[in-house]
Predict the structure.
Amino acid sequence: MSQRTAVGARPVPSLQRGRGLTLAQRQARLAWLFLLPSLVVVLLVALVPLVQTIIYSLTDKRLGSVEATHIIGLKNYRFLLSDGAWWHAVWVTIEFTIITVFFEFLLGLLIALVVNSRFPGRGPMRAAMLVPWAIPTVLSSQMWKWMYNDIFGVVNDLLKRVGLIHQNIAWLARPDTALFAVTSIDIWKTTPFVALLLLAGLQVIPDELYEAATVDGASKVRQFFTVTLPLLRPAIVVALIFRTLDALRVFDVFYVLFGARADMTTMAVYAQNNIVAFSDVGYGSAISVLIFVIIGIFVVAYVTTLGVEQS
Amino acid sequence: MSWHNRVSFERQLHQRFSRRQILKGIIVGASAPAVSALLAACGGGGATPTPTQAPAAQPTATKAAASPTAGGMTPTSGMAGATPTVITTGTAVTYTKDNPPAVFNADQAKKYSNQQITYYGDSVGIGAELDQILAKKFSEATGIKINVVPKPQSATENYATYQRFFSAKSADVDVMMLDVIWPGAFAPHLLDLSQAFANEIKQFYPTIVENNTVNGKLTCIPWFGDFGMLYYRKDLLEKYGFSKPPETWDDLEQYAKKIMDGEKGSNANFVGFVFQGNAYEGLTCDALEWLASSGGGTFIENGKVTINNPNAVAILNKVRGWVGTIAPRGVTTYQEEDARQVFQGGNAAFMRNWPYAYSLAGGSDSPIKGKFDVAPLPAQPGNKHVGTVGGWQLGVSAYSKNKEASIEFVRYMTSPQVQTYRAVVGSFVPTIPSVAADPQVLKAMPFLQSLQDVVRVTRPSRETGDKYNQVSTIIFQGVNQILNGSDAAQVLPQVAQQLQRLIG
């Protein structure tokens, strides 16, 4: 058990000083050493901005102002908690998240199952599937905006041709159809991503399990619920967490479609508006911190209810 | 031994960092940058188009949309009509792009020929091209070196860039283009030009000069200006027996309805009137015109919020009635370009827009080429025709190390000669009435003739300073809510209350 036998062979100074420690302790120390670079990076890119944002949120800092910045305690938060526009933005974001994550998961699973089966042209099919995901959101949102246009939009034209509607519908303008319009864009765009994650999960399930199930006389439906779904759980959890976090931070599609329209503002758009357009860094930071907390609540809820550890 | 070591090492690692912990770590790590990424996204704007500013501001060949950029104040009476002292604009000279006006102030400017200045000018198209030509001409005549930097194209980005320069008290920029809604916010950082331009300033439209004067300080010199106007289909007006464009908003409603009913048969998509109804800066401009032309005031006057009044309620409810009748239901999502596409496609009888649409709608590939004309926006009986001011100014940074040279450059660039040149070769609307009346300029932009008496109204950006964006957001969100179906009598008191709380 001399140092010479240690993995990597080069004696590390801290290990030399670590004489008298047990093997376990020395190895734990080595582990920390290897993790250090990553921890430093995380600290710099994540923790520092986060702490800075929290500090700003306690001030009345304004961009480009000639006046000095003051610490105003929790005033920003008190105002934020009674800010109707903010809570409306939270509600819009959560509605958007629930609708999109639900449909993206359902359709993504369906597509993954289809693409997982063997059929001719499977490779090109998988590549083509990713096209919506590959287009930058700003561009695809603009494209959809034109498709939804009430006068020359292709959506109205198609629906009229097949006789589903008789009058043009201003999809984005009407408050009752706007949420449907924006969620459908996100579902169109991100379903392929979910499908891909789930496909990866499907591919690691060994065929033998299905053979055994068939021998045991399990129907295809039974196989899906007792073999596929349980073994797919890790992939499902990752897909759900990724999508939920992304949906809660949604910015670009709303920004392109609705600009600063009051009834279609998400949490991120509200923060951006306050920081950039209004130069109100203090209040904008308080909003960002609250967004962080809300996202944190979702994460904790997922991790505890879906039992990430067992999976 | 060593194999054993590795296995136990890995097992240890595993125990210390269970999967759950690692996953949690990843997620927390991922959401923390989420906040900072958010902030970054906000700061950067990146590839995101910025509805607040809309496309570029100039009525140029760049085919950019006009911006609803313009700032302001009170509607001053009959401004445009009251032509101040006419200064020779060098009408005798016929300007071409490669033949810019002579540098008349060269003798004075030569005193500073050792100085070098950085100028944040136009970013694209003919505007950027003319900047280069004019800067070269000025440099050759005076020996002052000019470093022409294209400003960021998006107005939000542009605003943020200047803000950074100013908070750092940077001398890296000397002369810069300023949107008409910015003087209030940037006043502390701009050089007072009232002494240097004591003579020249009298020639400009007084409302714009007033807009640029913050607490007695002349922050910048008007350079080129936009204003809202009414585009109409003269062929259709004739077809349905109307001899002239609508005088009042009621006329417009009536004309639009008649034309629309007649045209629906042959074109199911035909609408009467399109404008900018989306929740963004452009709607603040349109709303200002509706109110100011109906005795509804200009939102905030002399530090008092006046937006909530019976005339304002009446006109906004009237406009609400248009949405889904003479205007398409989707007009509440329209910006300049959406409106232009509908009008230029031959699908609308009337449109409210900036001058930039004139050359585009009259272009050789336009279906309505030769079939349209422009007129002042309608006004309710007893009120003057108005147009919201947009456009750009030239200012000098208070932190500039070469102020004298900068002032001389601004003097040349904003002079009647250069404005005439830019109007003729680039269709930039002049900010000097005598230039706007110049036959050469009128030939390039015939619409200026019929719009000479339009009152130019400005948005309340001067008195609200760096809170203007917030003021405008409250206004356009409220008006958008009305257009989407809410009663103005209920929305305007809330808007007024929010504005009052903001400006104190």
In short: DSSP finds 14 helices and no strands in chain A.
